[in-house]
Design brief:
With 199 residues, this protein is of the alpha+beta class. 28% of the residues lie in helices and 32% in strands.
């Protein structure tokens, strides 16, 4: 007759020790934290890239609008039906709106481009259009991106810098549009355009 002997558990193999559990939790936490950091970085990067695309689109549209508007102003120079209010950080001009682009035909339109401070976060490039019989119309051209500055230089027929509105034949405006995003993707746009007024 054989006797059955019950197997005895070996010491040290009955479960996980507290030290092993603490190490496992620590390693798992580090992996989760690393994955979260990479995910958040990717999301932030996509947002910054989207902001840069929006900044570039608005800057390009603003430059094209200003270029066309300022150039067309010179079409009335021969008849002296224009007026420049000269400043170093904004440009304002008035002319007879022969093509009725903004006002009624033969009405006088005044266009002003200037930067409106938005506080510590954003500055907005503004367009103000006024007609004889209409209230002013304001439009933000570059907005919600960061800091915007503008510089304007006026030139006469010989290409020399002038301070006399009646002698203006060309002007150069430059924009400095800096993104408010704080990341490696944050960049700025600094277009400079020389506009020859039409005669």
């Amino acid at each position: 007759m054989k006797r059955s002997i019950a197997a005895k558990p070996r010491n040290g193999q009955a479960g996980i020790s507290i030290i092993e559990l603490a190490i496992s939790i620590g390693l798992g936490g580090m992996l989760v934290a690393s994955a979260t950091y990479l995910f958040v970085g990717q999301v932030r990067g996509y947002k910054d890239i989207g902001s840069q695309a929006r900044l570039q689109t608005m800057t390009k549209a603003a430059v094209q609008t200003m270029n066309t508007e300022i150039a067309n102003t010179g079409a009335c120079l021969a008849n002296k039906r224009y007026k420049f209010t000269m400043a170093a950080n904004q440009v304002q001009f008035a002319y007879v709106d022969l093509k009725a682009r903004h006002c009624a035909a033969t009405d006088t339109v005044t266009v002003l481009y200037y930067v409106k401070s938005g506080g510590s976060l954003t500055d907005t490039l503004m367009e103000k259009i006024t007609c004889n019989s209409n209230p002013p119309r304001y439009q933000g051209m570059i907005r919600g991106v960061g800091k915007v500055t503008m510089a304007v230089t006026y030139y006469d027929l010989n290409g020399a810098v002038t301070a006399a509105p009646a002698k203006v034949k060309a002007l150069q405006f430059s924009l400095d549009v800096t993104s408010g995003a704080k990341s490696l993707y944050a960049k700025s746009r600094k277009p400079t355009v020389r506009v020859e007024l039409l005669n």
